[in-house]
Structure formats: structure tokens, C-alpha cells
Amino acid sequence: MARSLDGLVLAPVADQAPGQVGVRTRFAYHERDGVIWADYAGGDVVRGHLLGTREGDRLDFRYVQLKRDGTTSAGHCVSTVVDLPDGRVRLDESWEWESQPGSGTSVVEQLPERTAGAVGAGDTAGKDKADGMDRADGVEHVTEHDG
């Protein structure tokens, strides 16, 4: 089984369609006793949350997000956790919207430690440099994920 996701920051390796997550999205993962959850934001996504379970190297979760245009969307994702040769983690994802038509695949990878500081230990009362929005959650959001 691949290592725990707890405390890891991951980001998509490629952009999805407009209004969805992309390379500027950051996911701050947590894991405890087979339960996984993450908060995410960036790009066209103002704020998103995912919650689900982990069994071995398989994640099964639902996600919900608020986009910059004020709309919300939700979906379901099944991911495989893969240990990369350099010690980082990758998630190979298959997702499907439940609130709108559409499905696909995506890949998110753990950010190298030197860049992971952009999410998690950020400015607790800061503003997102890209959109000027107040962030009260203690996470400096760099700026997008489809599940």
C-alpha cells in the first residue's frame, strides 16, 4: 500500500476544461483510519471539499465545489494511489459529475516540499494574490480539480 496522504499537498498535472480544476488548484489532503478528506481551491474554483474512504491504494470519494461564476457542482471520484520513484505520491483519477453531464480522468501529484508551502501554512489573514479574496481558513490558496 502506498503511503498516507495525511498532510500532503497535491496539484493536477494538466488543466481540465474551463470552470474546473487545473494546474493552479491545490488540494490539502488528510487521512485517518481509512477516511480521507481534502480542501481545495484555485483557478476557477473558489473553494472545494472532498470526503471519502481509502481501502488499500483505492480512494472512493465525493466532491463539491464553488466556482468563480457563483455556481456549485458535485461529483464522484475513484482514485488509485501510486508511489512515484522520487518518493512523491500520484493519484490516477476517474471522475463523474453528479450535478451536471460529464466524466473523465485526471492525474494529481504531490508537490515537491519546496513548493508545497504555497498551501497549508500560509498567511492566516491573507488575500489570494490572483483574486484578492479574503481567506479565513489559514490557507494561502494559490489559485482548481475534478474529483
The parts where pLDDT drops under 50 for at least 5 residues are 117-147
Would you list the SSEs in sequence order as H and E? EEEEEEEEH
What value does the Rg take, in angstroms? 14 Å
Specify the number of helices. Answer: 1
Question: How do the strands of the widest beta sheet line up side by side?
Answer: 1-2-3-4-5-6-7-8
Task: Decide which structural class fits the backbone.
Answer: mainly beta
Strand content: over 45%
Oligomerization status of the protein chains: single chain
Biggest sheet, in brief?
8 strands, antiparallel, barrel
- Tell me the number of strands: 8
Provide structural commentary:
The chain is mostly beta strands. Helix content is 3%, strand content 47%. The chain has an eight-stranded antiparallel beta barrel with strand order 1-2-3-4-5-6-7-8. The chain is globular, with a radius of gyration of 14 Å. Residues 117-147 have low confidence and may be disordered.
Task: Please name the defining characteristics of this protein.
mainly beta; 3% helix; 147 residues; globular; disordered C terminus
Please outline the helices and strands.
Layout (H helix, E strand, L loop, with lengths): L8 E4 L13 E7 L2 E8 L2 E11 L2 E10 L4 E12 L5 E9 L5 E8 L2 H4 L31
Antiparallel strand pairs: 1-2, 1-8, 2-3, 3-4, 4-5, 5-6, 6-7, 7-8
